[in-house]
Amino acid sequence: MGESYGIMTGRSVRKTKDPRCWQLLSLFLGIICLILLITVIVLAVQKKEKEQTSTLYECKQVSDQRIIDLREPENPPNFHDLTRNEIARIFNFMFAQETLNITQPSKASLGSNYIYAMELILPNKNDAFQSSTTRKSLVTVFEGANPNPVVTEYCVELKSQIQFCGSTRSITFSFRPITIPEYVFILDTVIAEANKTVGNILKESYHGTPINCGKTCLGVENVSPFAAVIAGVEGQNYRGLWVPFVQLMEPRNLHPVDFAVLATINGTSTPKADTVWYNGQLFESLDDFKDKWEKNQVSPLKIDFPKMPIHEDVIKENYQRPPIEVEPDGKRYSIKDQTVTSDHWKFSFGISPTHGPQLYDIRYKGNLIVYELGLQEICVFYSSSEPFGRFANYFDSVVMIGHYMKTLVPGIDCPYHATFIDATFMSETSNTPVTNKKAICVFEHNTASPLRRHHAPTETPSGYFEGAPNVVLVLRMIATLVNYDYIFEFIFYQNGAMETKVSASGIIASSFKSAGPKYGFQVNDQAIGTLHNHFFNFKVDLDIGGTQNSYSTYNVEVDEVPNAFSKADSSSNWFQEKIVKVDYATEREAAYMFNFSNPKYHIFYNENNLDKYNNPKAYRLLSKGFVKKVLPEGVGNEPGSPWTRYQMAVTKRKEIEPHSSSKFATYDGENRTVNFEAFIGEENIKNEDLVAWVTLGVHHIPRTEDLPIMPTPGNDISFLLLPFNYFPEDPSVGTGDNIRLQYDNPSSPLKIMAQKLNDLTCKPPKTYSVEDLLKEPEMFIDRPTI
Ligand SMILES: *[C@@H]1O[C@H](CO)[C@@H](O)[C@H](O)[C@H]1NC(C)=O
Ligand SMILES: *[C@@H]1O[C@H](CO)[C@@H](O)[C@H](O)[C@H]1NC(C)=O
Ligand SMILES: *[C@@H]1O[C@H](CO)[C@@H](O)[C@H](O)[C@H]1NC(C)=O
Ligand SMILES: *[C@@H]1O[C@H](CO)[C@@H](O)[C@H](O)[C@H]1NC(C)=O
Ligand SMILES: *[C@@H]1O[C@H](CO)[C@@H](O)[C@H](O)[C@H]1NC(C)=O
Ligand SMILES: [Cu+2]
Question: Catalytic residue numbers?
Fold first, then answer.
């Protein structure tokens, strides 16, 4: 192309010798001049416009006295998550142990030894604030290559010379969480066997196939673990998994087909397709199902293949963008080494691979309030008439909650002006550390409502108005655990209160419509949204005025007193309310079940730390998410989460009780790895280091408006820690954002007392944007394979 074009220009140069060409050339030059003139005018106008906008400079990202440093430290402080460098060192160390025979992740199988997880072991509380404390990691290894397969947990000490520390712990092999190699193995086996044995029946029933299926595929979704205690085969290395089939069309959770296969695994053996469920009928095996089908002993189910959902992504005319927040003087907090510092608050944060979000060393104006505040477990128990819906009792740590804290989308998940922070962890599928980009966000947010305000026009000596906006500091992360998305946030208020909040979004799970109406309402052509609950357990290690704490309640009760002021003949009584302080001496006494008849405040304090009026300087724990666990105690999977029995339990803090649940909780019903009920004993809890275990929950009866993606309003629950006689007055009074209007004297004008009120003189700086996600698209969403 380029070459032939060159030859043509050569020819036209020779032709200019022709006189007629001069006329053409001058016309041509005239046109060029005109075009140039227009260009000059347009550029001049544009330049002028640009000059006008550029007078508004960009607001400072970070003010001079703050630091945002998101680099991994060389010498991580005690609460810092394992760094890339530390994870790499542990890998090298473990691979170098020849006797352990550890396989590379790419070659891992059920019958090999491979590393499942690495987790920071927190220092003993006594050593936590010493810089010389050695960092330690718990390394969980699945040892399927051993003659007697077992899960072993090793303690590794990250000294300059890395080494093992303490003794190892062995856990029964069949209690292990579901791993990716195992999961893939089971699904491949079940899908292949189903296709081979009953492929024709599936095609006839559901107009789709599991293999080579083009646009009409059958697949699986929302598998349900089936533990030995539920199957009634304890002590035999048994592990079951109900594998329900669905038509693969968005959202697949809502296209169930009432066909499921129970896969079982004994030790490290190949998974076996066991019991089969089809259209309300149970069969011993795939062959049994096929036999009975051929003998016309099965009532067939016919389901059309669902149509592609239509996404309305048309841009509306006159669309107006929603408001955004601006930080006119830059960020008012610092972040370094996973520690956030603001004018009021200081705390460290991290992500436990097993348990999810964790906060440490939470201080308000230097006062330690909480030593450790972390999610422990999420439980979701479904109900249904079919086996996979009914046995869907999830203990979410089975998939490692922390690993599913993924990239946050600016403008949706967190505001544009937030600071986005990466999370690093070890993954069973990689022999190098894995980083989830921008998985945590921190931001200050103006809630646009008063933190406090009062209008006193007739006050003495001067009428006044005083108030402050409710500006909060937020740390947020979101875990997508199969179908549900849980938004975890920690909200720090300027007045010394802090809130721990979780909201649910995502896609509801379903059963085929024949399971209704007892277990749910039909929400689309094929499915009922099945009844379930969501329970969350948090560890709150409070240190109020030191570690020596006591727990009391201020109960509100009826007070009946004689009415000495009545002139009636027969004496009458007056009814009002009174405060009755109740102290709790033991853990068992303090295991709390909410009772509407007994309103009370839950108070934590140090008995020797009184204010000048002799009130205990306390913090109050207020829950906005107490919920009744309906299932009876001791049945089915209920004993796996005894923490759902109590809305709050207060125990004496023990290093040997670091967590209320474990990643083994799904399958360890035969012999619990962690039994929370045993935390609650006759131990004294007066003047001791205390931990409050707080359970939040909701009952969820799905409705059509939970489709296509469940909205968050009404699905948010939280608990607050509130200062209670801890400070002499609201400790945020008089600080920065306060405004007071008053007269100085009878003749002076109304005066404004405020730090800075001038208008915005800068434009918001460039922030992380949705477009930035396109730079590494596959980190964010896998490419489609078909
Ligand atoms: C090491 O593990 C592999 C499986 O990953 C196994 O085939 C081999 O026998 C094991 N070697 C020893 C010495 O146990
Ligand atoms: C199973 O899948 C293969 C691949 O698509 C297909 O050829 C076969 O017909 C299917 N059904 C059976 C019964 O094997
Ligand atoms: C698993 O295998 C072991 C040893 O072969 C056997 O004793 C046990 O009964 C099996 N368990 C089940 C549930 O089949
Ligand atoms: C709730 O408290 C009331 C009043 O103390 C008591 O009568 C009732 O039995 C309690 N309910 C439960 C479920 O404990
Ligand atoms: C239960 O597990 C513990 C260790 O976690 C072990 O010492 C004990 O023997 C086990 N009990 C049974 C009945 O298997
Ligand atoms: Cu739900």
Answer: 396, 484
